[in-house]
């Protein structure tokens, strides 16, 4: 079955530190990949997406993600975290083709210490 | 322009009652999705509408759940005979075509007492 795994339920970092959130996928073929962020009481906002091409993708708010086919991973990174980055982060995938529904990971809650 | 809107933002109902949740997609978006976010199950796909095609209902958890999309725009998700396990946040998303990113609404928080 198709699945997306985020191994870390909760991560705490200090403001200004670097961040990496992990995401692994299990699909028959390379899926379309996404990272969304959800602030408390808010809907989901797209940070970045990967369809094909360059494996390092840039997103909004200074985030980037790298697609690694050999590791079935699509990890999210940010060089310097801001207090406003505290939120829950979701990795998601879709098969593309005729099936566009998103399969989400369970999410990683990010806490930022001052 | 306006984003995806959902109403009501909160709904409290009693077990056994029917509820209707509404989604207004971004104008011109042909694809519309419903997802459910609950503590135990995370974010789950429920149903997908694309233009005039038959919807993909493969994520609906039971026959108590149904959805329609009138005129290719507004969608209503109906839950009949609600159960406590239906308590969750119901999220709607739309996109300009299936290849593009999905824009999410703020969700409807449903509480079944």
Flag low-confidence runs of chain B.
none
Enumerate the spans of chain A where pLDDT stays under 50 for 5 or more consecutive residues: none
Largest sheet of chain A: 6 strands, mixed
**N- to C-terminal separation of chain B?**
37 Å
What portion of residues of chain A belong to β-strands?
A: over 45%
Describe this protein with a few key phrases.
heterodimer; A: 114 residues; Immunoglobulin-like; four-stranded antiparallel beta sheet; B: 113 residues; mainly beta; six-stranded mixed beta sheet
In terms of topology, how is this protein built?
The complex is a heterodimer of chains A (114) and B (113).
Chain A: E1 3-5, E2 10-14, E3 19-21, E4 24-26, E5 32-38, E6 44-50, E7 56-58, E8 64-68, E9 73-78, E10 87-94, E11 103-104, E12 108-113
Parallel strand pairs in A: 2-12
Antiparallel strand pairs in A: 1-4, 3-9, 5-6, 5-10, 7-8, 8-9, 10-11, 10-12
Chain B: E1 5-7, E2 10-13, E3 19-24, E4 31-38, E5 42-50, E6 65-69, E7 75-79, E8 88-95, E9 103-104, E10 108-112
Parallel strand pairs in B: 2-10
Antiparallel strand pairs in B: 1-3, 3-7, 4-5, 4-8, 6-7, 8-9, 8-10
Short précis:
The complex is a heterodimer of chains A (114) and B (113). With 114 residues, chain A is an all-beta fold.
Task: Describe the protein in words.
- The complex is a heterodimer of chains A (114) and B (113).
- Chain A has 114 residues and is an all-beta fold.
- Chain A has one domain (3-113): Immunoglobulins (Immunoglobulin-like, Sandwich), CATH 2.60.40.
- Helices cover 0% and strands 51% of the residues of chain A.
- Chain A has no helices and 12 strands.
- In chain A, a hairpin with an 8-residue loop joins strand 10 (87-94) and strand 11 (103-104).
- The N and C termini of chain A lie far apart (41 Å).
- Chain B has 113 residues and is mainly beta.
- Chain B has one domain (5-108): Immunoglobulin-like (Sandwich), CATH 2.60.40.10.
- Helices cover 0% and strands 49% of the residues of chain B.
- The termini of chain B are far apart.
- The mean pLDDT of chain B is 92.
- Chains A and B meet through strand 6 and strand 11 of A and strand 4, strand 5, strand 8 and strand 9 of B.
């Amino acid at each position: 079955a198709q699945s997306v795994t985020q191994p870390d339920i909760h991560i705490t970092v200090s403001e200004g530190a670097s961040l990496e959130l992990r995401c692994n996928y299990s699909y028959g073929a390379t899926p379309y990949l996404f990272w969304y962020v959800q602030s408390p009481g808010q809907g989901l906002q797209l940070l970045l997406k990967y369809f094909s091409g360059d494996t390092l993708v840039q997103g909004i708010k200074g985030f980037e993600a790298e697609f690694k086919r050999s590791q079935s991973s699509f990890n999210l990174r940010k060089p310097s975290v801001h207090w406003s980055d505290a939120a829950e982060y979701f990795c998601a995938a879709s098969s593309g083709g005729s099936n566009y529904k998103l399969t989400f990971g369970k999410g990683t809650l990010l806490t930022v210490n001052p | 322009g306006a984003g995806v809107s959902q109403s009501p933002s909160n709904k409290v109902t009693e077990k056994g009652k029917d509820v209707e949740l509404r989604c207004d997609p971004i104008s011109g978006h042909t694809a519309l999705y419903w997802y459910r976010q609950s503590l135990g199950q995370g974010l789950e796909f429920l149903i997908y509408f694309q233009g005039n095609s038959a919807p993909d209902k493969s994520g609906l958890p039971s026959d108590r759940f149904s959805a329609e999309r009138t005129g290719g725009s507004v969608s209503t998700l109906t839950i009949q005979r609600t159960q406590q396990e239906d308590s969750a946040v119901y999220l709607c998303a739309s996109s300009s075509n299936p290849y593009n990113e999905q824009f999410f609404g703020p969700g409807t928080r449903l509480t079944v007492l």
